[in-house]
Amino acid sequence: MPRSVNHVASRARRKKILKRVKGQFGARKNVWTVAKNAYEKGLTYAYVGRKLKKRQFRSLWIQRINAAARLEGTSYSKLMGALHKAGIEINRKTLAYLATNNAEAFKAIVEKAK
Question: 36-57, pLDDT tens digit by residue?
């Protein structure tokens, strides 16, 4: 009995990946084995990137809070310690938003913490 191979499914699988690597440089866009490796590596970077994004945003928020706190005559670490002691629970994302977009509200929070 001859061997049965489902060419329709395997071609569709290859086309799906080649479609997703469209726009890449060199052989990565049209050579199946290179494209498959590039696609899998891209998925790995995407997964890692979703984790890194959280770290990078927290770092950005801290920098913004520190810059605004120094305009008010204190540092980031002293401000966060004072907020904790005063029992003011506000997250860094919100605090950074206030520091950049609503200076008087940020100033009020700093005064309350002191």
Answer: 999 999 999 999 999 999 999 9
Report the C-alpha gap between 22 and 38 in whole angstroms: 11
pTM across the whole model: 0.77
Pick the CATH number of 9-113 from 1.20.1740.10, 1.10.1900.20, 1.25.40.10, 1.10.10.10: 1.10.1900.20
Residue 84 CA: distances (Å) to CA of 41, 45, 48: 43, 37, 32
Q: What DSSP state is assigned to residue 26?
A: G
Axis crossing angle, helix 76-86 with helix 32-71, rounded to the nearest 10: 70
Which DSSP letter does residue 21 get?
Answer: T
Residues 6+ apart with CB under 8 A from 42: 21
Ranges of each domain in the chain: 9-113
Q: Which of 70, 58, 59 is nearest to 99 (CA)?
A: 70
**Amino acid (one-letter) located at 21:** V
Nearest-angstrom CA–CA distance, 11 and 20: 14
